């Protein structure tokens, strides 16, 4: 189980490139949280671990556990950030591996992915995310091949439709 | 209006934040007007929606486009809806529409969700759109949506499963499709259960009770084989996800025992053994490029299985036969040892894409935690797990260090010994750059400290004090944590360790709160006299000794807690300090003490209005009075008296000046009486009450001390709250009156949570001169409504007392009530009945 609360793709300049919320937050909480997360992640140096402990009391009322982890991995100019609540089930190492799995999938899909691919094709990035992580923040599919296969079929459908339209 | 690409490019290339802002605002306004225009369709409309999504990523307002996303996905959804349908002329619209809805409507406008209920119930039967539809249902679902669509979802799962078993023998390809549908449906089902656990029977009832088991058997053999072509581990991942959600339902809500039975029958019974075998298979599987992560086959599935099994073995221990218990234990052992740990020091962490961390420890980590969490597993297995965990510490990857430290805090208790090298490693971790690792390693160190068979306390305390002495003001929180922990575990209260207490105060004093200083005083007061003597010696040595370097002196002088404590100690232990020969002769020492008091006074009397100054001066004047009883030198005593006079005349802080006056009165008493009054404090027991510290005596040896507690507790005023009697709110309506009773209705002004609901507070007031006994009310409402009647807060009312009762009326129509009352007034039973009509409906 991963139990991700959100996933943010972040450029090293602090710009959000892709963001999805899995957990339930109000708009205000989302605002504070994403701002804090961006600041935290950008201020880390390479010697530190990829796990940041974060106290939720400043963000939200006491309805959820206060312990929160922000986990990130940097790939070239892009940070992949995931948030989890502190619980018995959260496995930090597994989350870092799932982030890596997602990046590998993107890499395969775009062919040596770079930040620009994600900026200009954010929908595609979202579609892959939708096939990789389920709506409750868990991993939906551990086979890259299967994800790519499904996405490709959908892409073909979309394109063939476009062609049909023109022909009609 | 340009394409999506040019919009993104313009935003990206904007030279200043202001220009970027302008571009975004302009585009946002354009999108808003264009979307309103119904003639814009097809490709152009999709471009606008895409731009809208880009606005969402930028963190801009997008609420104006929510309805347009819904419109996009609902266009022509009435078209073909069969399992074999693969898109249609509206696929493009739907794909984008669902993405938009998933993003824009998450946690937003709940009312709009009812608009998509129908579309979802149709679209889940369309092959590729179904995936998106189910994801949409999963992310957006609220209680209503969950209830409306739950049976559809259960149907879909059953149907897809049927199609696999019937058709698949001929067409191997469809199994992949059905697998895809089942995977998404199960994960959506997990989300629905999170919203409303009462939906559990839909998936586990008698008809489809063995559904989950059937899915497993259809796709997987328990030896880890995939039975159908095109099937992946995805389905099993979502099965486990669903199973864990079922368990979570139990934790979140008071469970019906029937649900418990369903879980046992449908999940625990059939699946436990299969999960274990599958895990076993994965742990030893031949490398498979599709699932491998650094030599481990599908760690995601392995960890999920471990987590599900962990819950089963913790919660349903007695429902599992002993054979299975044994196999599970063996499996855990195997999984933990499956890949011998290489020399972890060579594993570096690097952010670069090419340099992937070469080792996957996630499964090992999960196994170790599982072993530690199942309390009844034997200790030998646990200590084995901790041994492996300790090896994580030497990894150069800080993430490994972090998880190891985090888990070790729970694991230390199972260790019999810890070798020198590892201990050094743990102690060194407090100097890591990463604050999380630091904090976690301190936690571990305190665990070790409490477990004295593992390591020498003094060695560890030495290291801790060393760490504290080097800590910077950025680490305030950590320092405070350390100090609190040191106090809480009572480790410093022996003669040998009291010197560490002096040091701890010295290095942490800057960061302590006043309450914590009070706490230290209580501890000093309560520890045995040998320990306190050695503490005082250390303290006075630091204060007055000429051997202490100048820098250190300056260091103490800026340390508030240190100053307060030394003032307090001089007061309490004055006689001891003066009598003890270690500090030079009595005369000199008295002089030094009085000088010190004057110095403190000079530092703080100006600012006596501030909290800190008042705090220390408060202790100072008490100490002055106390010390005066031990000093023989007349002129010094006079100096002390002057100090009290000075404060009694000052008006900055009234409490202090009153207290000084009282002390002055006592000051003129004969020495013998004075000594009794100002004797050392008795043992205290600290009580935490309303967040303020109040002290109460546990033994009182002298009558005079009662008087002292009065005098000295001025800083700690204990406020008791009187229970407020019920009052009738101002805007209540009187609905009934007779000779004995007045009755009021008060309708809460807050909007009721549901429509067609009224919350009414009823107040009964006794206006007779006698007590009313046994008050009972019977309430009826109109046929279209139901009422829930709360308890009367008190059925006995003294004259002019008020009782409360709560009515909750549900339903529709005009609001009216008929109340029948029974009570005894003056011991005469009385029955009253009356109707009341409200001027509004619900």
Quick summary of this structure?
The complex is a heterodimer of chains A (168) and B (842). Chain A has 168 residues and is of the alpha+beta class.
Give an account of the 3D structure:
The complex is a heterodimer of chains A (168) and B (842). With 168 residues, chain A is α+β, with helices and mostly antiparallel strands. Chain A has five helices and five strands. Chain A has a single domain, classed as Beta-Lactamase, CATH 3.30.450.60. Chain A has helices at 27-42, 92-110, 115-120, 122-132, 144-167; strands at residues 4-11, 16-21, 51-55, 67-75, 78-85. In chain A, a hairpin with a 4-residue loop joins strand 1 and strand 2 (16-21). The longest helix of chain A has 24 residues, at 144-167. Chain A is globular, with a radius of gyration of 17 Å. With 842 residues, chain B is of the alpha+beta class. In chain B, a hairpin with a 2-residue loop joins strand 1 and strand 2 (296-297). In chain B, helix 8 (143-167) packs antiparallel against helix 9 (172-195), helix 29 (586-604) runs parallel beside helix 31 (634-649) and helix 30 packs antiparallel against helix 31 (634-649). Chain B is extended. Mean pLDDT of chain B is 76; it is low at 77-88, 168-175, 347-357 and 687-724. At the A-B interface, strand 2, helix 1, strand 3, strand 4 and helix 2 of A face helix 1, helix 3, helix 5, helix 7 and helix 9 of B.
Instruction: Please state the structural category of chain B.
Output: alpha+beta
CATH class descriptor of chain A: Alpha Beta
**Overall morphology of chain A:** globular
What structural class do the secondary elements of chain A suggest?
Answer: alpha+beta
Please tally the β strands of chain B and state the result: 12
- What's the helical proportion of residues of chain B? 55-70%
Strand content of chain B: 5-15%
Give the number of domains of chain A: 1
């Amino acid at each position: 189980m991963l139990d991700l609360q959100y996933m943010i793709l972040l450029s090293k300049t602090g710009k959000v490139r892709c963001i999805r919320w899995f957990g339930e937050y109000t708009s205000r909480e989302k605002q504070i949280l994403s701002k804090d997360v961006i600041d935290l992640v950008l201020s880390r140096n390479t010697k530190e671990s990829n796990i940041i402990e974060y106290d939720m009391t400043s963000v939200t009322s006491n309805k959820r556990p206060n312990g929160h982890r922000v986990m990130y991995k940097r790939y070239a100019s892009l940070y992949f950030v995931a948030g989890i609540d502190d619980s018995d089930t959260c496995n930090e190492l597994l989350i870092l591996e799932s982030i890596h799995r997602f990046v590998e999938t993107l890499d395969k899909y775009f062919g040596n992915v770079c930040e620009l691919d994600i900026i200009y094709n954010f929908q595609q990035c979202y579609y892959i995310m939708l096939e990789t992580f389920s709506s409750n923040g868990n991993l939906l599919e551990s086979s890259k091949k299967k994800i790519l296969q499904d996405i490709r079929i959908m892409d073909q459908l979309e394109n063939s439709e476009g062609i049909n339209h023109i022909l009609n | 209006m340009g394409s999506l690409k040019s919009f993104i490019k313009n935003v990206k290339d904007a030279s200043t934040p202001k220009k970027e802002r302008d571009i975004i605002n302009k585009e946002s306004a354009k999108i808003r007007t264009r979307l309103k225009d119904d003639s814009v369709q097809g490709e152009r409309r999709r471009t606008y929606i895409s731009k809208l999504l880009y606005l969402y990523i930028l963190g801009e307002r997008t609420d104006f486009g929510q309805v347009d996303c819904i419109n996009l996905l609902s266009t022509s959804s009435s078209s073909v809806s069969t399992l074999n349908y693969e898109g249609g002329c509206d696929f493009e619209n739907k794909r984008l529409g669902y993405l938009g809805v998933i993003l824009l409507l998450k946690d937003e406008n709940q009312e709009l969700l009812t608009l998509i209920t129908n579309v979802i119930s149709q679209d889940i039967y369309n092959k590729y759109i179904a995936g998106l539809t189910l994801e949409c249902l999963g992310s957006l679902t609220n209680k209503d949506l969950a209830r409306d669509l739950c049976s559809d979802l259960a149907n879909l799962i059953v149907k897809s499963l049927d199609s696999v078993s019937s058709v698949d023998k001929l067409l191997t390809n469809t199994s992949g499709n059905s697998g895809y549908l089942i995977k998404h449906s199960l994960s959506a089902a997990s989300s629905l259960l999170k919203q409303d656990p009462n939906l559990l029977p839909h998936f586990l009832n008698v008809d489809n009770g063995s559904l989950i088991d059937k899915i497993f058997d259809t796709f997987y053999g328990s030896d880890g084989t995939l039975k159908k072509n095109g099937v992946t581990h995805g389905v099993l991942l979502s099965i486990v996800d669903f199973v864990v959600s079922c368990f979570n339902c139990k934790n979140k809500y008071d469970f019906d025992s029937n649900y418990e039975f369903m879980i046992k029958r449908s999940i625990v019974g059939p699946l436990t053994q299969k999960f274990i075998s599958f895990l076993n298979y994965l742990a030893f599987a031949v490398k498979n490029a599709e699932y491998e992560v650094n030599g481990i086959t599908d760690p995601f599935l392995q960890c999920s299985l471990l987590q599900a099994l962990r819950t089963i073995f913790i919660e349903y221990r007695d429902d599992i036969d002993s054979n299975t218990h044994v196999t599970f234990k063996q499996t855990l052992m195997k999984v933990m040892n499956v890949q011998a740990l290489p020399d972890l020091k060579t594993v570096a962490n690097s952010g670069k894409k090419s340099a992937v961390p070469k080792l996957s420890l996630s499964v090992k980590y999960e196994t170790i935690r599982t072993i530690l969490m199942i309390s009844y597993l034997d200790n030998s297995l646990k200590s084995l797990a901790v041994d492996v965990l300790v090896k994580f510490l030497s990894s150069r990857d800080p993430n490994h260090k972090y998880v190891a430290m985090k888990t070790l805090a729970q694991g230390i208790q199972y260790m019999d010994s810890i070798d020198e090298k590892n201990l050094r490693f743990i102690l060194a971790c407090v100097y890591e750059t990463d604050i999380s690792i630091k904090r976690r390693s301190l936690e571990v160190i305190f665990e070790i400290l409490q477990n004295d068979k593992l390591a020498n306390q003094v060695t560890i305390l030495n290291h801790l004090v060393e760490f504290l002495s080097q800590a910077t003001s950025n680490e305030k929180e950590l320092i405070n944590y350390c100090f609190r922990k040191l106090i809480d575990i009572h480790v410093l209260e022996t003669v040998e360790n009291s010197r560490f207490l002096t040091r701890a105060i010295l290095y942490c004093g800057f960061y302590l709160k006043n309450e914590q200083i009070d706490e230290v005083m209580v501890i000093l007061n309560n520890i045995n006299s040998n320990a306190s003597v050695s503490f005082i010696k250390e303290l006075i040595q630091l204060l007055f000794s000429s051997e202490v370097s100048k820098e250190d002196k300056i260091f103490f002088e800026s340390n508030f807690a240190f100053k307060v404590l030394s003032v307090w100690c001089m007061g309490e232990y004055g006689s001891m300090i003066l009598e003890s020969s270690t500090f030079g002769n009595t005369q000199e020492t008295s002089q030094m003490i009085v000088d010190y008091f004057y110095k403190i006074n000079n530092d703080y009397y100006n600012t006596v209005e501030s909290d800190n100054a008042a705090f220390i001066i408060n202790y100072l004047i008490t100490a002055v009075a106390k010390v005066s009883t031990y000093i023989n030198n007349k002129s010094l005593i006079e100096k002390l008296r002057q100090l009290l006079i000075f404060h009694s005349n000052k008006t900055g802080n009234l409490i202090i000046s009153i207290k000084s006056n009282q002390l002055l009165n006592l000051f003129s008493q004969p020495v013998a009486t004075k000594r009794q009054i100002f004797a050392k404090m008795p043992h205290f027991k600290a009580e935490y009450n309303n967040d303020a510290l109040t002290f109460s005596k546990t033994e009182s040896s002298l009558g005079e001390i009662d008087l002292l507690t009065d005098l000295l507790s001025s800083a700690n005023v204990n406020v008791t709250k009187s229970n407020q009697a019920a009052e009738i709110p101002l805007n209540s309506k009187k609905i009934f009156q007779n000779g004995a009773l007045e009755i009021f209705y008060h309708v809460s002004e807050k909007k009721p949570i549901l429509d067609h609901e009224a919350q009414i507070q009823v107040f009964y007031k006794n206006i007779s001169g006698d007590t009313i006994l046994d008050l009972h009310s019977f309430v009826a409402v109109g046929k279209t409504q139901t009422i829930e009647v709360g308890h009367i807060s008190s059925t006995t009312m003294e004259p002019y007392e008020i009782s409360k009762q709560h009515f909750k009326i549900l339903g529709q129509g005009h609001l009216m009530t008929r109340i029948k009352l029974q009570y005894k007034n003056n011991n005469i039973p009385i029955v009253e009945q009356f109707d009341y009509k409200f001027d509004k409906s619900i």
